[in-house]
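<instruction>
Derive structure tokens from the sequence

<record> Sequence and structure tokens follow
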Amino acid sequence: MATIFYLLMTLILLGMYFYLWRFRKNLEERQVGVLVLQGVLFGLIYDGLVLILGNWLGEGDLLRRLNLGRYLAFAGLTPLLMISGMSIVARAEVPWTQKKVFQGIIWLATLSLIGFGGALEWQFKDDLMVESSAGVLRYVHEGGYLPFAPILTTLVLCILGVLLWRKIGWPWVFVGGVVMFVGSAFPPGFVGPWIGSGVQVVLMGCLVATEKRLLTINKVQLESELESRINQAT
């Protein structure tokens, strides 16, 4: 049952990835936030594929290495969502978010969390133990630890989401961040894989929808400016 769930979630994420790929063709200039969002989606797709193939690959060094890749990708890519959020609020012209000081702080926090999370995962790479949960074979950390980087990333997204909500009346970055934060608080051992994976898809869906919303707003603004210039010329 869990394998079917992961397959469904992975297909949804794959759809988002290719949607953004087509979406980028409509952009007049390359947006770092959109590229970052695609990178995070790629990592989540990889995560889902490893979980789907776990039973087929069976216990062994290959599956252990693939699962280590899952954790390293999660540690390295999740903080990049702060860059995506920063790009969103800056393009929405939220006051002071376009300043280099603010963007520098976000970049510094992102790189610091990537370094911290990656080092932590590498330190505990030998603690991975095989586990079969809800019919899915995978490797997990024996002791576990507090996911500090994802928690801080989600909190930053919530704050940026509030700023965006106040600016353009679009609450979905905040909603996605809250759903992710609350859902991640449930221990997987008690609720299974459903909550954790589901809230990831919700958050990514909110961010992808926000990118679409910003493109629509920008198109309307450009059309309005063009019409104004034509009227002035005539």
Notes: The first strand starts at residue 128 and ends at 133. The beta strands are 128-133, 136-141.
